[in-house]
Amino acid sequence: MSKVALITGITGQDGSYLAELLLEKGYEVHGIIRRHSTIATDRIDHLVEDASLKDRFFLHFGDLTDSSNLAMLIMKIKPEEVYNLGAQSHVAVSFEVPEYTAEATGVGTIRILEAIRQSGLDIRFYQASTSELFGGLPDTAPQSERTPFYPKSPYGAAKLYSYWITVNYRESYNMYACNGILFNHESPRRGEIFVTRKITMAVASIMAGKQETLALGNMDAKRDWGFAGDYIEGMWRMLQQEEPRDYVLATNETHTVREFVELSFAEVGIEIEWKGSGEDEKGYDKKTGRLLVEVDSRYFRPAEVELLWGDATKAETELGWERKVSFRKLVEMMVDEDMKTIAGMSSEEYKTIQV
Ligand code: NDP
Ligand code: GDR
């Protein structure tokens, strides 16, 4: 008998990779999708269209803001594992829609935990917690499971509630419930308005002559960026242990947004020369002098998390988890994919025709 899993947020970056991993492992996979005015299942269309999966892959309409729907789905699907990845997950957007972010990203978690508890079923639960919980306390890096929390956004505050309610349900009801405290993880499937994908798409669009410049906010922010595919494996491992525990997943490295920009342009053979500082900082093609990067204060946040740098020792030791894709390889993979899609050629081919 194959195991049955339910994924909220299956149409997102992580949900799509997790669905693939669980299907590879022989699971029957169910996912909750929301109704949109246009179909928004691009990241999982290959699974929907795969005839060999028709008895093992199912999508259901639902929403983390609708308790009755969640309760009905838990009773109908009877999953053994639930991965709660659904969220309004954009930090800057959470300042624009704070109340909705609280509903989906915060209260949504208690709705699904309650649906599980009231079902009386033996279900293992994974909560997509985040390094945004650490936020703004100075001198805490590298951050681990023992680092105090101090969220700096409505998104972070909503995730803080979800973190603690997950711990509370574990302790109160003896549920197998875990928090994965994941640092930033990216991929060619990353949403287009997160900074890494915005950068790699801009590089490809500029090379293809479809965009003039790349406008960014705070380029001094530091993040611990890994590859989403590696992190999905860690989520699954957290639900396969004897005891439920909370784990940080991170690469143990940190880099600035500026470094991500430099490496991305380097992939297509361009060296960036920086001039000016603060809001007047600009990046030029060192060889031709062409303006490529500028700062736009519209992308500054009301409060910023300046430094995230994780310590994943516990996951490495207890789960045998390791990140496999390096920072450089991640940038290379993302630029290359966007070059193929947007410019119609790989980064290497592009460099060859430039010399
Ligand atoms: P995405 O933004 O790519 O995906 C979010 C998913 O949540 C989408 O499937 C979206 O559906 C769904 N969703 C949004 N609102 C609701 C709702 N009200 N009800 C049900 N589903 C909803 O996020 P990622 O894949 O990058 O991240 C997955 C999870 O991990 C998120 O909870 C995120 O906050 C968290 N996280 C992510 C990290 C990262 O670096 N990627 C790091 C740490 C935590 P739709 O397609 O319909 O919009
Ligand atoms: P983050 O990711 O806020 O860390 O949240 P994001 O890629 O949005 O920002 C990273 C850093 O880059 C700076 N930045 C910009 N960000 C965006 N989006 N657009 C810009 O133009 C820009 N310019 C500079 C930001 O200020 C920030 O410092 C992600 C999400 O996936 C969360 O759901 C998850 O919980 C955390 O990672 C860990």
TrEMBL record:
Cofactor(s) listed in the protein's UniProt record: NADP(+)
Molecular function terms, GO-annotated: GDP-mannose 4,6-dehydratase activity; NADP+ binding
Biological process, per Gene Ontology: 'de novo' GDP-L-fucose biosynthetic process
Enzyme class: lyase
Matches recorded under CDD domains: GDP_MD_SDR_e (cd05260)
InterPro entries referenced in this protein's UniProt entry, alphabetically: GDP_Man_deHydtase (IPR006368), NAD(P)-bd_dom (IPR016040), NAD(P)-bd_dom_sf (IPR036291)
Enzyme Commission number(s) of this protein: 4.2.1.47
Matching SUPFAM superfamilies: NAD(P)-binding Rossmann-fold domains (SSF51735)
Catalytic activity annotation: GDP-alpha-D-mannose = GDP-4-dehydro-alpha-D-rhamnose + H2O
Pfam families referenced in this protein's UniProt entry, alphabetically: GDP_Man_Dehyd (PF16363)
NAD(P)-binding domain mapped to chain residues: 6-334
Keyword set, alphabetical order: Lyase, NADP
Family the entry assigns: Belongs to the NAD(P)-dependent epimerase/dehydratase family. GDP-mannose 4,6-dehydratase subfamily.
Functional description taken from the UniProt entry: Catalyzes the conversion of GDP-D-mannose to GDP-4-dehydro-6-deoxy-D-mannose.
NCBIfam families for the chain: gmd
Record's protein name: GDP-mannose 4,6-dehydratase
Species: Trichococcus patagoniensis
Gene name linked to the record: gmd
